[in-house]
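User: Reviewer 2 asked us to show a designed sequence for the structure in our supplementary figure. I'm pasting the structure tokens here. Could you produce the per-position amino acids so we can include them in the response letter?
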């Protein structure tokens, strides 16, 4: 089984913020691939399903971003799984809007959700970095990250989430490069 975590903050006031694109990604995957009903577990919301021949548990921590690691660690402990099955979907300032990059491990880039997971489990987990772009000056970062997507971004965001969901079985199979390429191809079309 794999554990895929979408990072975000709970509550309707945060639903459309750039910081919540991780939540949006796992929701899109769950809907497109007919995952089971949402259950409240591990200080978050979980849905189980299959992507290809892989069983995947989708988790949205309800702990707020800076405590995400508690929820993730609890889920891994419950299923007696190691960090090698963990994939985290998160917003990335240092990536152009709607771009997607997958990598193992790496730095935290000031991301409180990643920092919390790193504190609980270490840095060696797979990340799906979802570009939100940088506002240009560090004083504007918080407002940008916690700001809602603009009306002009809604169609590209919908396309991004659709591409992520459509190509999710490739990611589940462990072919990160093909996943990134196929998502990019879908977004060009």
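Assistant: Here is a per-position design you can include in the supplement:
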């Amino acid at each position: 089984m794999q554990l895929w975590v979408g990072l975000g903050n709970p509550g309707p006031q945060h639903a459309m913020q750039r910081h919540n694109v991780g939540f949006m990604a796992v929701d899109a995957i769950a809907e497109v691939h007919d995952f089971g009903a949402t259950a409240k577990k591990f200080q978050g919301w979980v849905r189980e399903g299959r992507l290809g021949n892989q069983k995947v548990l989708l988790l949205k921590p309800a702990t707020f971003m800076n405590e995400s690691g508690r929820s993730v660690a609890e889920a891994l402990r419950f299923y007696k799984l190691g960090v090698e099955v963990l994939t985290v979907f998160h917003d990335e300032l240092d990536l152009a809007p709607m771009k997607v990059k997958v990598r193992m491990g790496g730095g935290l880039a000031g991301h409180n959700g990643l920092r919390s997971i790193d504190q609980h489990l270490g840095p060696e987990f797979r990340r799906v970095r979802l570009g939100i772009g940088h506002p240009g000056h560090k004083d504007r970062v918080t407002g940008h990250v916690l700001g809602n997507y603009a009306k002009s971004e809604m169609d590209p965001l919908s396309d991004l989430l659709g591409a992520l969901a459509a190509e999710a079985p490739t990611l589940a199979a462990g072919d990160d490069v093909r996943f990134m390429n196929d998502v990019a191809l879908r977004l060009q079309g």
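For the response letter, you might also mention the following. The first strand starts at residue 2 and ends at 6. The helical segments are 21-32, 68-78, 112-121, 141-145, 154-172, 176-188.
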